[in-house]
């Protein structure tokens, strides 16, 4: 009886893990190839406001604003709105001295990125608002590529792609994992948007119609909740793979863990806020992707733990399960070594296991923090 229960737990856990990481992405990739790419009009040029919420970005903010103004987009249709979220370094001083009619700068009390964005959108004049980070570097035609999809009136938000790079030149213990996972995640969203609509955007480069923007709670993960609000209103969220940005990955496992805890806790609250969309109010596809793409990801630490425990208990009597247990032991051992040993001694062999374990450990802590009511409205700059 015990053996039967453990075997059922083992196979159910393994099936759920495989479906979440491989089955669902493969399904949307296959379905996505059956649908045409979203319509775009390369010559469409609406007025645009680039919104940057900044906290202690003295090292990057001036460069970011100047690079944005120099992008290939009609100067008379482009403005940059910077909102300092109670910065305590020289960010306010630098921006206060900026002399350009296309730049608008505001300082608000410390309240978090999303609250700063809410304030900033109120002061944007462009028909399209593009949300960017102070450290995101856009390719020259990024704005034009983003807005070209808004020629379709059914589109309410457009996301570009952010490519991460290891800012430590290969020395970050989680850098490769973030780079590969970022590409994997954005590929899923591209196919989702072809089938019907995506329900999340890439935080460093996404745009919404200003008229559709919904002010969010300060603790909301804006690049997840804002797209869901736009879908709730009946508009599509699509991906523009031609609109590219780049940004440095986190520089340590500690930084990655802190970031993942904050983002995941906000994401859990965001998913719960979907409310009626989890009950098929926007059709089967939206609910299906929210559960398969987000809901199961947040639940995955449980089947991972159950798989490890059940395979350990069954390994003696089952050859196949013994190999599965051995593979897990090697994988988690590599993650532990990647955490405690200098990466340069072993190349990038331990990078992916460490990133995987860091992300799932962050999910567990995020759930605990969410249950405790910690909503992570504000963030600390960790870039050096």
Describe the structure concisely:
The protein has twelve helices and eight strands. The protein is an alpha/beta fold.
Describe this structure in words.
- Helix content is 49%, strand content 15%.
- It is of the alpha/beta class and 384 residues long.
- It has a domain at 48-260: Alpha-Beta Complex (Spore Coat Polysaccharide Biosynthesis Protein SpsA, Chain A).
- It has an eight-stranded mixed β-sheet with strand order 3-2-1-4-7-6-8-5, sandwiched between helices.
- Helix 8 (253-273) packs across helix 12 (351-372) and helix 11 packs across helix 12 (351-372).
- The N and C termini lie far apart (56 Å).
What layout of secondary structure does this protein have?
Elements: H1 2-32, E1 48-54, H2 61-69, E2 78-85, H3 91-96, E3 103-108, H4 113-122, E4 128-132, E5 137-138, H5 142-147, E6 155-165, H6 175-195, E7 205-209, H7 222-232, E8 236-248, H8 253-273, H9 284-299, H10 301-314, H11 319-340, H12 351-372
Parallel strand pairs: 1-2, 1-4, 2-3, 6-8
Antiparallel strand pairs: 4-7, 5-8, 6-7
Helix pairs in contact: 1-6, 1-9, 1-10, 6-12, 8-9, 8-12, 10-11, 11-12
